[in-house]
Fold this sequence. Notes:
Elements: H1 21-28, E1 32-36, E2 39-42, H2 44-63, E3 67-68, E4 74-76, H3 77-81, H4 86-89, E5 94-97, E6 103-106, H5 111-121, E7 130-139, E8 154-164, H6 167-187, E9 193-197, E10 206-213, E11 219-224, E12 230-232, E13 253-256, H7 263-270, E14 278-285, E15 288-295, H8 302-309, E16 314-316, H9 319-326, E17 343-347, E18 356-359, E19 365-370, E20 380-382, E21 399-414, H10 416-420, E22 424-426, E23 432-434, E24 436-443, H11 444-454, E25 456-457, E26 460-461, E27 472-476, H12 482-497, E28 502-504, H13 511-521, E29 525-529, E30 537-542, E31 548-552, H14 553-565
Parallel strand pairs: 3-7, 15-17, 17-20, 27-28, 27-29
Antiparallel strand pairs: 1-2, 4-6, 5-6, 7-8, 8-24, 9-10, 10-21, 11-12, 11-21, 13-19, 14-15, 14-16, 18-19, 21-24, 22-23, 25-26, 29-30, 30-31
Helix pairs in contact: 1-11, 2-6
Organism: Ureibacillus yapensis
GO molecular function: aminoacyl-tRNA deacylase activity; ATP binding; catalytic activity, acting on a protein; proline-tRNA ligase activity; transferase activity
Catalytic activity: tRNA(Pro) + L-proline + ATP = L-prolyl-tRNA(Pro) + AMP + diphosphate
Amino acid sequence: MKQSATLIPTLREIPSEIEAKSHKMLLRAGFIRQSTSGVYSYLPLAKRILNKLEKMIHQEMEAIGAVEIGLPTLQPLSVLEHSRNYDEYRKELFQVSNRNNQNFILAPSHEEAMIKLIQDEIQSYKRYPITLYQIQTKYRDENRARNGLLRSREFLMKDAYSFHINDETLEAVYSQMTAAYSTILSKLGLHYEIIQADAGGADDAESLEFIIPADNGDTLIAYSDESRYAANIEIAEVVNEPTSSKETLNPIEKAETPNIQTIEEVCAFFEIEETDCIKALVYKIDGEFAIVLVRGDHQINGVKLKNVLQARTLSLASESEIQELLNCQIGYIGPIKLPVDVKVIADHAISSIRNGVAGANEDGYHYKNVNPNRDFAINLYGDIRNVKEGDPAPDGGTISFKRGIEVGKISKLGTSVCEKLNVNYMDENAQLQPIRMGSFNLGISRIFAVMADIFQDENGFLWPKQFSPYDIHLIPVNIHEESHLNLADELYNILTFYQFDVLFDDRDESVGVKFMDADLIGLPVRVTVGKRASEGIVEVKIRSTGEMFEWAKEELIDHLNEYFRSN
């Protein structure tokens, strides 16, 4: 490809507000441009890399028997409204209407569309199992699109869905997908970890996430320092270690606490530790209010709470709703003397509190010497808090934290999704049975961003040989020097004949600009035709190591073949 004929708009400076390394370098090197907030154009270099990623993914999917399909981006809103994902995606939907005022969405996911297709087209058990996949653009109206392609409003994803009549074939596909994702990330040269993840709370569901460790990642991982345990903090298990105390239960007392609302202020006022405080929040759960309790040093985990309650919707109550329900401010909420229809949900650690402090549901007052079960009833105990660093891990050791970027997620959903949607198959006895299902997602544009973050130095990219947009950057120092241009043209023809992908910098620019752009673009090999062109000798630079060689044109192909065939 002649560089003058393509579009590679490199930059010397980028906006100061851009923080992510990948975003900065993709802009500088002319791979992407922002169209609007969270939406990007993939320019020719980026598109070539994405095409290579997609080709590899197609090969891995076909190797395990998945069949490619293409589903529409524009979907009726009704397809999503009754799905398990509706409440998760509702605020992020891009909605449109047609001329007949029918409501549509730009697909944030294709799970529902795939299920409907299966429901409409396959009824007999003889047609199962089947795995269908696609590579498709998804749309989510992120509240704060940030970090370039790492969290954008329009993104490229591979999603696959499998359908089964028994657990054995579902388990087999789940294992195959795990291996396929591992192969893909390994081929890309990415260090990854597989961690436990939220599958939506169904009893028969199971999920794994594929995480690239990164300090700027938005996934917090809880892991054991002594075992292989690792889980997304959303579902990381808290080991319940109930403690018994022989401390005398003191009479409950109501204390005036003017302008004392936060846990820190309460502890200072009563001269107690956070472990002796009962933190209470009001949640709206499937339209009903409930008081949720955790110890003062703990944080409520919304994902766990939703799963424990098998709730469809879950949100914190607003200040006005709290005022109407309890007639107090947020800082004075407590579990004592509640309206009769308000349930109390408590974390396991609450059961061990003795003579604690809790809000009195009255502005300016708290209770002290509060004891669970004696002073208030608890409808349900559960693991509903975030695990903390230093907590015991479920299978040994203690919990530590690190961050990472999720690039893939696989879920073994069992019958839970299809049962709720009444999607069945006809068995050999002509009886309707629920379909078992698996869901498997891989973020292609996010993987591209992760690669851009990892494979770079201060001067530009260092793309892996097999996924670089081109193999070789061919640069004549001076296109007005006949010997330079003639040898460059000759080498371009030879290199392309031997099936190398070549970017030929035929621009009328200074050699300094060409070298700077070459480092930014980051192709594995730079071949410079310069001062020894009349002798048939070129300068070769290996981008990843900085090594420089002078090779005669007759030996160039042999050396390049050796380099590109090596690991």
